[in-house]
Amino acid sequence: MSALTHQDGPRAAPGFLRRLLSSPSGAIGLAIVLLLIFCALFAEMLAPYNPSKMGAGGRFLPPGGKHLLGTDEFGRDMFSRILFGSRITLLIGAVAVGISLTIGMAVGMIAAFRRGWVEAILMRSTDVLFSFTETLIALSFVAVLGPSLQNAVIAVGVAGIPFYARTCYAAALVETSKPYFEASISAGAGPARLVLVHLLPNVLPTMIVVATLGVSTAILAAAGLSFLGLGAQPPTSEWGYMLAGSRDYINRAPWLMTIPGIAIAVTVLGFNLLGDGLRTSLDPVERK
Amino acid sequence: MSALLSVKDLSVSLGGKTLVDKISFDVAPGEVLSIVGESGSGKSMTAKALMGLLPPKASATGTAMFDGANLLARDTQTLRGTGIGLIFQEPMTALTPVLTIGLQLTEALESHGLCSKAEARRRAIEMLDRVGIPEPSARMHQYPHELSGGMRQRVVIAMMMLLGPRVLIADEPTTALDVTVQAQILDLLRQIVHETQIGLILITHDMGVVAEMADHVLVMKAGKAEELGPANELFASPTAAYTRELLKAVPRIDAVSAGTELDAQTLLSVRSITKTFQTRGALFKSGAGHRALDDVSLDVRRGETLALVGESGSGKTTLGRVIARLTSADAGQVLLEDTDLTGLAGRDLQARRRAVQMVFQDPYASLDPRQTVGRTIAEPMIIHDALTKAERKQRIESLLEKVGLGVDMARGYPHEFSGGQRQRIAIARAMAARPTLVIADEPTSALDVSIQARVLDLLEGLKQSEDLTMLFISHDLAVVRQIADRVAVMRNGRILELGPASALFAAPKHPYTRALIDVAPVPDPTRKRGKRPVLQGDYPAGPLKEVDAGHWVAE
Amino acid sequence: MWRFLGTRIAMGAFTIWITTILVTLLIHAVPGDPVQIMYAQSQGTTPEQIEEVRRSLGLDRPIPVQYVMYMERLLQGDLGATIRGGQPVLEVILQRLPNTLLLAIAAMFIAIVIGVPIGFLAAYREGTLTDIALMIVAIAGISMPHFWLGLMLLFIFALELGWLPVSGNGWLNLVLPALTLGLSNAAIFARLTRSSMIDVMSQDYVQTAFAKGLPKALVLRRHVLRAGLLPVVTMMGLQFAFMMGGAIVVENIFSWNGVGRMAVEAIFQRDYPIIQGFILTFSVVVVCVAIGIDALYAVLDPRIRRS
Lengths: 288, 555, 307
What we know:
- The complex is a heterotrimer.
- Chain B is α/β, with parallel strands linked by helices.
- In chain B, 34% of the residues lie in helices and 25% in strands.
- In chain B, strand 17, helix 15 and strand 18 form a beta-alpha-beta unit.
- At the A-C interface, helix 6, helix 7, helix 10, helix 11 and helix 12 of A face helix 1, helix 6, helix 7, helix 11 and helix 12 of C.
């Protein structure tokens, strides 16, 4: 657009990455998330066995030996299943958050920008939905659509919308009342310019933090649904579903329960830490 | 007289940085020592060090002898309050919101074991009465949010005085208050010093307050003591260059008015503007809202600077925002060169907006943190003017030069610049729209005095060179006197007096204007006044009547 | 204060009203014929029977008429009958609701009793090793899926050590589910308490209290704790709703006979009247608790109490 920004390009706050990495939580979180993405991308190459191949080396083999994390009730290799599970888990997180984030941000920014009755209708209904809680919304959705992984992800995504809308609305309201925004109105900027050039870039940092933390919530919620049998169906290597299946062999093969649980916890921890780290390093550059 | 508190070579450092560098001073009984300096001078850190309330990672060296003990070398908890008291700047946050005023007044008396519960209550009520709070025993059961800012500051003072300290440190105690309330609080402090013979350390940035209050003055800059001496001498013949600079920069209400009255045509005409803000209740609409503007009419002439003056809640900012169409009026018209701005909407309004530009108070929130300075200044041109990139770049550079900044700053982001620089950038942005009217809403209130002076000079210069008309909104009469051609005094959403600056300051016709001028601190200790008339009750606020040529007063 | 509470109660009533509409629409959102789907799993249902059910549910009428019918019955306390067994839905729910409430309240108690002191301690020792260690535990606690925590507790305390029963509905049976739900939420309370306390400690009024020479313990107890706990109280309403949601999963792990377990079974069996009743009950409980918490807040905060 302008000659000036063209040369500079969009620039994050200086030293952003350095600050992220210098906070322990940010650094650890980023490492975990990168590792997960790596596993998800190269699951075929990393996995020693086909995750759905049964009875390769015997059932209920404890961790160690040829099967790093043991085998399950059908003799499938747990390590391979976990690796492929990371792909599903990240996909769940990304899609669900994608749904919540795009719709939530649109609702929040429109409400803060238009004000008046648009604001009233959007935010009142958001309040009502918010008080239903995400679990109930997700459960109702699954009840209507029927149990499947796809429906569970949609349900979790939709259930998150009220929270994202509220957060974005609050952030946008702060920005629209700042003098720089009013100065832009005075300069004659139209709605498109105000929203895209000023509002969006300024609420984005907040929303990035919310979305990163939101990946954790979404993964937990979807895994919870799968655990109840309302999400992923066999033979998916989804961690929550694997955990549900392990209940029957809790005495015989406790690792079937421990391993997917740790996988979920570490993933969620990674996104939580990264979100915390982002929050401190994206904090408004100008603190007096 | 021997000193109550004797500070020698006090230094405070935090994380390797020296915030206060070897300062020394004495405070005698019944004496007011003023520590004056701009932001970052270390004056507040000095107070915190004496109180033993430094942040955990900061450390203090040197000696501060009080009552035979070195305050810097021991745990001062038992001396806090009873030996040395502290009053903060912001009365709105200095009292715990969830506790009653009575409890907050009496708890320290009990905790120090000074008296019984009943006795503490009796003393608290007596002290509230002494600091001028009406119905003191009823106040004991109230919570802080139920009192005004001035009342809360009185409560804080009472809270500290109850403990019978011999030294009181007041850190900008009136900065957050309106001038009329400030005058009352300063009077109260002076009276307390006189009656109890305590030593008062008054920390402030305001040379006017210093002149009115101080016996001795310590001038600080960047952690160092620049000058220490008796107030009269320091104001009459300052020795340090910095003190001279500071005194020169202070705008004076008793200066000869620069304002000239122009006999030009009307550029802007405000007709019977009314604005009521609804108090927000989600479902139950409250009957009457807050009336911010009540039938306000006003003409601004081409090429003049008209100042809107008033205390908080006077409606001056709302009027500015209505003219800039950032707030919509309930009724009335704003005519700019015969176009009614209140009647415009959509694209017509967007196109017309460039004629009226604003400069805001807060330099930190005035610029979009995610845009380069160049892009911020370019915005009005991008919207309104079809310029090539080269032309635009050239204009941005010439604007930056005009406001006294380097052309290479265009590539920087706002957070790289100081408050004064940011305000210059905001002015450049306003100029980029080539406006006919600039509304400056307290443009220098958040800045240090020395920077304020330079920004005011810049505005004045631009007004001449760019042929601008300016609406200058301020609470500070001294600043207004320096810059305004005409002045409108506002209170509770009405204009009470409107006239040429010279006439209005020399011979104010309305009692409220007189009171405002009377209470404004003057940086001249020889003009120390006695107790001032209490400013209360109603002022005439009827329709304006012309008493002199161009001089209007409310009946 | 009454205006504040009045607004909250009106909002709550509005929420419940919206729920009744959504619940009526729910059954129409189901892809395909809901009645067919409901009976797909049971053998030997005749077309006549299906028509009968359709009529009794009012599904042959226009939607607004259905809504009026539904509301009429609802106001008489009739939530319909279950598809399987034909029991009154209200009865089925009321039978189990106390169990769920008991679980949520016990979990809330655990979460507060553990979480708030930890948060306070961490704030008090901000920046020290204690603080860092506590916050690591807290973030790990938040990251742990509670269904997994439940399984682990079940495995350790019920199966390996044999201290507590695996499932059932006695008092001892309450311990593990309540711990499962309480511990995850204790971490949330700990983090919230910490940040709220740190915020309050930097306020001028705390500095003023110190400037009066009050001992640290008194400043913390009187000035910091009172003001710092207000956001925690606000959070309790939301947290209770989360616990009700979490109870759905936890009840299934421990076979706790509450409404959550009932709802999941109903989803599998496509027993829509139960699902409708569950959603309605859930929102009524959440709204009531939220209003209760708001009332508590209004009493605790003088700025609202005396306005």
